[in-house]
Specification:
InterPro entries: DUF6879 (IPR049244). By secondary structure, the protein is an alpha+beta fold. The chain is built from 3 helices and 5 strands. The protein starts with 7 loop residues before the first helix and ends in an 8-residue tail after the last strand.
């Protein structure tokens, strides 16, 4: 999920992601503006093997300052459901044209 117009960092990611996509990784982009309703976690996260969730912590200027990992089944279910919902709304990398 990204805010648009996208940041310099996300422009860079978008410009190099074709290599990962060519290797078979499915990658999608979803604008925060496309998420109309529903609860979302307060931070970026990764669901790891459907068993745990890793949250990223950021400083005020956007630098990652730490990680928090939980195996709480309720948190894993919630974050997995959010991921699935957003994935359905997201645009495949090959079709996504970021607003600059």
């Amino acid at each position: 999920m990204v805010s648009e117009p996208i940041s310099e960092y996300h422009r860079w990611i978008h410009s190099i992601l074709h290599r990962i996509v060519a290797a078979g990784e499915e990658t999608r982009w979803c604008s925060r503006g496309d998420i109309l309703a529903g609860p979302l976690p307060g931070s970026d996260f990764y669901v790891l093997d459907g068993a745990e969730v890793m949250f990223l912590r950021y400083s005020g200027d956007g630098v990652v300052t730490g990680l928090f990992v939980t195996e709480d089944p309720a948190v894993v279910r919630f974050c997995s459901a959010v991921f699935e919902d957003v994935w359905k709304l997201a645009t495949d990398h090959r079709a996504y044209r970021p607003r600059l």
